[in-house]
Amino acid sequence: MGGTDGSAAGASTAPYGQAVVYEEKLPRRWMIATAMVLAIWVAYQASILLPQDSTVWFVILGFSTILALIFNAVPISKRIYNRIHIRDGRLTVGRETIPVESLTVDSLREAREQPTDAEFVASLTSRSREELAELRRRSRETRPPRIMGGGWSVPMGMDQIVVQTAQGESLLIATHHREALVDALMRARQR
C-alpha cells in the first residue's frame, strides 16, 4: 500500500527528484461493502415489488442512493482532497500540486520525528493544568499550518505530517502511511 521507486535505468538519467514515484492508495473496503449491501437490498426489493409496484421500488432505489452517498461521504472526500502522488519531482495532494524541491530538508527530518496523533494525545493527558494553559497560549500566537489539498481538517482514520516550504509556509498533509510518505519525500528531495 506504500510507494514504489522508479526504475533503476531512469534513476541515473532522471533530473533532481524525478526518479521517485509514490502513490498512496486509499482504503476501499467500506465503499465496496456499503455498495454491496445496498445493491442486495435493492435487488431483494425488486424481486418483491416489480413489476406491480414499480413506483415504490424507484423510491427505494432513490433512498438507497442517498444512503450510499451519506455512508460514503468521508471516503469520497478523502479521494478528492487527500489522494497523494509523488511523480516527476512534484507532490500532489488532492487538487494541489507543488514541487518537492520547494520543501525544506529540515522540515522533512522534523516530520519523521513528529508524534502521531495517539502519542500527542497521550502526552497531553500527562501534563498539568499550567502546562496545558501555556501550550494553549503559545498555540494561539502561532498560525496553524494550511491543510494541503483542501478540506476543513484531517479526516478520521488518517495521520498527519507538517512540512515547511522554502518560502516559510507550513503545510499539513493528511496521510494513511506516514512513514512511507516521509521516506518518499526524503528520497525525492535528496540531492
The largest beta-sheet arranges its strands as 1-2-3-4-5
Write down the secondary-structure element order.
EHEHHHEEEHHHEEEH
The biggest beta sheet reads: 5 strands, antiparallel
What is the beta-strand fraction?
A: 15-25%
Keywords: Membrane, Transmembrane, Transmembrane helix
Transmembrane segments: 30-50, 56-74
What key phrases describe this protein's structure?
alpha+beta, 3-stranded mixed beta sheet, 51% helix, elongated, disordered N terminus, transmembrane helix, 191 residues, membrane, transmembrane, 8 helices, 2 domains
List the SSEs and their pairings.
Blueprint: E1 4-5, H1 8-13, E2 20-24, H2 29-49, H3 54-71, H4 73-81, E3 84-87, E4 90-93, E5 96-99, H5 105-113, H6 117-125, H7 129-141, E6 146-147, E7 159-164, E8 170-175, H8 178-189
Parallel strand pairs: 6-8
Antiparallel strand pairs: 1-2, 2-3, 3-4, 4-5, 7-8
Helix pairs in contact: 2-3, 5-8
Any overview of this molecule?
The N terminus is likely disordered. It is built from eight helices and eight strands. The strands form two sheets. Strands 1-2-3-4-5 form a five-stranded antiparallel β-sheet, with helices on one face. A three-stranded mixed β-sheet has the order 6-8-7. The protein has two domains: 131 residues, no CATH class; 46 residues. By secondary structure, it is an alpha+beta fold. A hairpin with a 2-residue loop joins strand 3 and strand 4. Keywords: Membrane, Transmembrane, Transmembrane helix.
